[in-house]
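Why does this matter for the project? Reviewers at the last site visit asked to see concrete outputs rather than summary tables. In response, this paragraph embeds two records directly. Each consists of the residue sequence and, immediately after it, the corresponding structure tokens. Nothing has been edited or filtered.
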Amino acid sequence: MASWNVYLLGVVQVHFGEWRITHFESTRVIALLARLALFPERIHPREELVELLWPEVDPDVGRNRLRSALSSLRRELELPGTTGDLFLVDRHSLRLNPQAFTCDAVELTRAIGQKRWHEARELHRGELLPGFYDDWILTERERLEALCESLPEPQEAPEPPVRLPRTLLLPAYLTTFFGRETEIAALATLLRQHRLVTLTGSGGMGKTRLSVEVARAVAPSFDRCAFVALAECHEPGELLTRVRSALGLQGDTPLFEALAEQTVLLILDNLEQLLDQEASAVIEELLLRLPQMTCLVTSRRGLGIEGEREWPLGPLPLPTDEEPMSAALALFVDRARAVRPDFSLTVKNRDDLLELGIHLEGIPLAIELVASRIRAYSLSELAAQLSSHFSSVTHARIRGHKDERHRSLHATVAWSWRLLSPQLQRFLAALSIFRGGWSAEAASAVCEEPDAHGLLEELAADSLVVVSERPDGSVRFRLLEMIRSFVEERLAPDRRAELAEAHGSYFLVWQESRGSRWHKMHDETQNLCAALEQALSTGNARRAFALLKPVWTLLGLRRGEESLSLIQRALDIPEITSYQRCMGLLEQYFLLMTLGNWNSAAISLETAEKEIEEDKKRELFVLRAQVYNLVKHQASQKEVIPLLEKALTLSLSLKDREAEAFLLNLRGGIALRQEKDFDLAESVYAKSEEIYLSREDIANANQILLNRANAAIESGNFEKASDLYETCRKNCRKIGDDLLEAYVDNGMGSLCVKKKQWAEAEFYFLNCIRQAWKLGGNYSGLA
């Protein structure tokens, strides 16, 4: 049976059969893995792990971070098809199952203890966790190094055959290289195991520079390392000539004869334009006739040779709370100082820099290009320019850049564009109509392309489309903004308008098929916004009013003002029907109430009431708004209950289950706050939750769950309240509801106050306040 193999010496990675895991969410996740793997027989108390990994933070914060790190680690390591439990976890402690894994550092210690010297030397491939400086890691590192010093010298081996002096023929750079430590280590490992490794990725990702850094790292293992620049090579026949030149071979000695007795690493840079001209066959012949040769290729697509190992290179990681100083941020600051020496990262400009990083998507070339413009722009001006008109940056040029393909983002994408067939060019340009991503089904429908999946596969192979797998197993595609901006310019105005209409029509039908299942729409938020914008700009009232509710619900309160603007634009469409006007005003009312702007909300509701006419459905919508208004203004039961019962009766007669659930929720609130009837509150809340769940409206069902937890506090059932809050929090994270999670923290704080757990209460209330601040507003009911 296969087991997990954890490697901590030289490079951190985990193997399970053919699986190779080299990327982890953060350094703290790696440190947690290392602690568990280095001490396999120990049961690790959670409090001890918190103290080791996050010694500077509040214990409650540390416990939350431990839960998050453990969750990340389990997502990475509990792979499809694995059997047995790797993690043994309970509420107080955790460990790795010692029967389910091996660790190279542990095996090294054991091999030295048992005097298995050869095995120990094989295991000692580098220092423990390079780049980590936790005290306990330094202690373990020193212990292992001391052990390895006790290794006896190997017996003298026969003198190796005479070889030529090692030759390193690599380009030199005048700029500092940032990040990619994981990639360098992983690629170095691949090059030790495989003779053909292809580093793929779109233009501007830094493939060339990374390949040189990798070559420097592995150079001691080769007699010769040479960099072969192929960007200007357009005939496969020239390839061997350029290899000879790069290796510095003189005279007429045949290439294969000259290299027969040497270990050689070739970096074949920018090979993509030769792949359709039999260059792969030339490289395959090189590798077959020179068994000691290894090739590291950079290309925007793989070579398709048997035995090839592809390594897709993605963007640099952007800053996170766990890793605030990312390589992308460091690269920007360094390149900005090259043109403005006084530039520095400060508390005041960090948010603008983070926004810039999001727009630039961690693409090294884009970061360098924008950083070079800091001499004439502020960070906020650059961020605003990118937000409104990304193409202004794609055409900008980097002064002094020798490689014409990388003088600008436009030139970088143009290089890939020219290598595509006309069919792929047309399809790629059409894909620019999407925002944020899309499915193969959507691409087929909107672009009218029956073979969309096959074409997407080709574009992904050319590193022009990013592919990602969703948690539910579905696959999504997206364009990097620098590519989307370039190919959008290739669309004629008539074709762009035609695609926009098809896009709007598709997403209207898509949204209507999902009803109020908001949690299943988050992936398409940007597409729904684009569809709404198209409807508003063309005056398509039916589509605009159908998309208003899902769009402002998905945008959330942090973009409340933007949502209000969209609603007003819909109300301003000429010749809208009375029904559409009534619905629009009610959407405006609910959003204004949620944002706490009660006076303006009252005006919207009063205006909507005038649009009721004789329409029962419209009457119901207005009635529920009136009830909601009375409840929010804490009107008396005598005033609210009759109107609420009238609305409930109408909802039942119209079989409007969503309105029924909404009104039952309001009834639960009255029972809880005014009548203090906890049993009634629980009963109507439960019925409301049941209706929402039957409609797969997880977001609203979760809101009812929160209300039930609040009711449990009021009734004194603290254990039930705690369980409900935790369930609600899990649901919030599943659907990305940051605002409701802030309300959960508020409720947990109130629960801790009731239990006189003051430190815990402070922790939850502070979390709530931080989240509210992050969301960009002050919300009624939050601490």
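We now turn to the second protein, recorded in exactly the same manner.
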Amino acid sequence: MSNSYSIELPNGLNSPADSAGDTTSLDFKSLIGIVYRRFWLISLGFLATFLLVAYVTFTQTPLYKATTTVQLDTSQRNVIDISSVLGGIAANTAEIDTEVLVMGSKSLMTRVASKEKLIEDPEFNWTLREKKSSVFDGIKSGVLGMLGKDASKSDPFADMSDIERQRTIEESVVTALIKKASIKRVGTTYLLTAAVTSENPETAARLADAIADQYRVNQMDQKLEATRRATSWLNERVEVLAEEVQEKEMAVAIYMADHDMITVGGEPEAATELLYLQSQLIQLRVDYQAAQARYDNMQRQMRAGAVDAIPEVLGSQVINDMKSQRAIIRRRLVELESRLADRHPELIAARSESADIDRQIDAEIQRIAGNLRNEVTVARRRMNDVQGNIATVNLSLTKTTSAMIPLNELRRDADTSRELLENFISRSKQTGVQDSLVEPDASILSSSTIPNAPSTPKTVLNLLLGVILGIIFGGSLALLSEMFDSKISSSEDVERKLKSNPIGSVPMIRTQSFLGLGSISPADHLIDNPLSAYAESIRYLRAAIAFSDLDSETKVVAVTSSLPDEGKTSLTLSLGRMSAMSGSRTLVIDGDFRRRQLTEAAVLSPEVGFIEHLFGAGELTDAITKDSKSLLDILPLSRSGHTPHDVFGTRAFDEMMVRLRPMYDLILIDTGPLLLMAEARVVAGKADKAILVVRWRHSTRSAVNQSLKLLHTFKADLLGITLNMVDLTRRRHHRDPGATYKAYRKYYTMETKPGLFGFKKKKNADKVHPGLRPMTTPVSVSPARPANEQSDVDPRAAE
């Protein structure tokens, strides 16, 4: 048999609004019920979490935090460049974020650690700390001992040289400083903060200032080094370029002397004219292409029907005026069409006028297109004329071109080298001057102060957080327990989760007296307290049986349960006694052959019982025994009776039930557990009705569901499910529509108070109406009473 569990929210937290629409109060009551039910689990989770947070808070070493603020200079000024002086360049977000990383880099922290001699501080150099023994050290020693190693001789520097040992310690010091330092940007400003956390407040303030100072020194060093490298490289390039310019100018002079070339302004006159014509040709080509582009665009727009998108059309004042006139005519045309006939002269004239305006607009557009076409033609003709002139000039320059080309190349090369030399000389002088003007890009806005109070731990905040986390953890444990709780808690659980009919709840009574000096069974409690809550629940159950089927009489009822110890036997005996006390002829059959609990509860020790009579060892009158406290008839089990494998499936049992039906108004059969005994399933199928007893907050839904499936398989007519042994003092914390403990206590005598030598009745036990005085002597029933007559009325009406 395998149990299946389903996870669902606790009752009430996801229930629909089924009572006056007030779901908020119902949900709140459900939560309060969960708190009451899981109080100890919530308390345990809360205490565990709170004590853990408190322990960590009070055992944590106090740490002090100091902060230094650095401002970035985002408008760097170069005094040599006047534009740089007047307008600075603002740093972007990426550059500022880069500076944050630089300020917290390992190289900068290494310089700080070296300058501040942190290797001599035990807070940063773990090798200088005093070794303290702890539980973890003991565990480590034990593990090393199991591995055959001596924990006392375990030295992490055993296999290192002195240099490697020193380097490893320095690395650990820098790593410790990086962990204790925090570099951040203040919002979206140009401010950076360097915060250091330390066990010593003076050390925290000193290191925060040291990081800011080292950051400024690092910027100075980088700028000076870059300036020195640039100056050296520029000086070398100036020397090389000077020699190169001298050689190239000499080559130009030699070439001109060899070819006897005389130029005006360095160029022949024809060459100057050619340059002019070429520049003119370029401008004409641009004009031609622009005119052609405008003309092509207009043609495309006209073919596409988008005439209004042509720039020339949009800029035409004539067309715009005609469009305005056309709009006025069309508005008048619309007005005339709305009030005149289609062939009215005035309407026809208006339409003709509108068509005439459209023709004028089209003609104007065609005129504009013609003008653009003429512009293209003129531009092409002018460009062709200039090209002819260029060809003529080129013929005259043919002889001198071959000589001018090498000369021009020599001149351009010399000019380029000369210009480059001048730029390098100027930049070299500027760089030399800037050496004395280098300043860092950051300034310390505020130095750190020695903190007076530790930053961590925050005792009040931590304890408050511990309270919140404890409540959350305890509440989570309670909700998880409710989600995985598969116990039956209320009649609503029977209806909603088991899809079955609830037929009442039987309260739990105290069966043990004070100091264990006396005890009372539930069936005896029924006799002694007929107006108690327990008696009322049994009376309600008996009424449910009596009115279960108005068309046919219900006589044989099998009372069963899923598993043992669910109070089935006590409930059967109590139900039988209540029926007998009410005047009904009632028989209770002990059908649990293995435990004989009903026989023992009735304090019977028969020699001839149910089994002996069933298999011919005794008469029925000898087997049936009268209850000592009521007129109830009991068919018990003898202690020495042999139990065969099949009892309820035999013909003898069927014949016995045929004989018993006319003799009694109600026959109750106390069966064994359904999930353990096959006989219980058989007798449930043969009875008129079957009652499944479920122990409150003890039986699981999986067991009850399997029992319901077995009853359905054996075609048992299930009357319903009864919740047994309900603790009324705890039921108010569950979502149950039944009465609360306070209501029961006010209306019923529920139980007796334990006295020194037994049980003592409550004050209100005897203060009842004279007509409802508890019956101490069972009421006799006339034997001539018809078997099908109802024994009593509805107990709720009697109350």
